[in-house]
Amino acid sequence: MEIEYTDAPTQVQPESADTMQCPYCGAILPKGAEACTECDWTREATTPAEPKASDAMAVLLSIIPGLGHIYKGHKLVGFLWMFGAIPAGIFVFLAAIASAGFGAGLFLFYMAAAMLHAYAVEDRIVPKEDEGEQY
Ligand SMILES: [Zn+2]
């Protein structure tokens, strides 16, 4: 018994072990292809949002609320968060005095909210490769 394996595909197999179909144009691509050879599909374009390095960085920067947003290119939103931190900070400061330091923990909630938002918000800066995304 002999199994001959040739690279040349004799028939079209849409979804076999080592090929995949382009979600845009249906072209047969090698499994794990990062981009389509027939159209401008890229894996990045269709992969569901998974944590990116920039997300982690944005969360880190959100220790100062708004900085994470600015990092991602959302300058206005970032400044709004930062601006909001001032009254929030004052309120927390007063609460901290009133409750002998205990209220300071409240600011963590604001920080956490800013972090979450910075994490969830889409990157405005396109990190690499400028392709014709817009029509
Ligand atoms: Zn394609």
Report on the architecture of this protein.
This protein is mainly α and 135 residues long. The protein has five helices and two strands. It has a two-stranded antiparallel sheet. The protein is elongated and about 80 Å long. The relative contact order is 0.11. The model has no long low-confidence stretch (mean pLDDT 76).
Secondary-structure topology with pairs:
Elements lengths: L18 E3 L6 E3 L12 H4 L6 H9 L5 H5 L3 H24 L7 H15 L15
Antiparallel strand pairs: 1-2
Helix pairs in contact: 2-5, 4-5
The structure holds zinc ion.
Task: Please give a quick description of this structure.
With 135 residues, the chain is mainly α. It is 42% helix and 4% strand.
Shape: elongated
Small-molecule binders here are: zinc ion
Number of helical runs? Answer: 5
How many strand units? Answer: 2
Biggest sheet statistics: 2 strands, antiparallel
Radius of gyration: 24 Å
The secondary-structure class comes to mainly alpha
Q: On the 0-100 scale, what is the average pLDDT?
A: 76
Strand order of the largest sheet: 1-2
- Low-pLDDT stretches are none
**Termini distance?**
55 Å
Helix fraction bin: 40-55%
Portion in strands: under 5%
- The ordered string of helix (H) and strand (E) elements is EEHHHHH
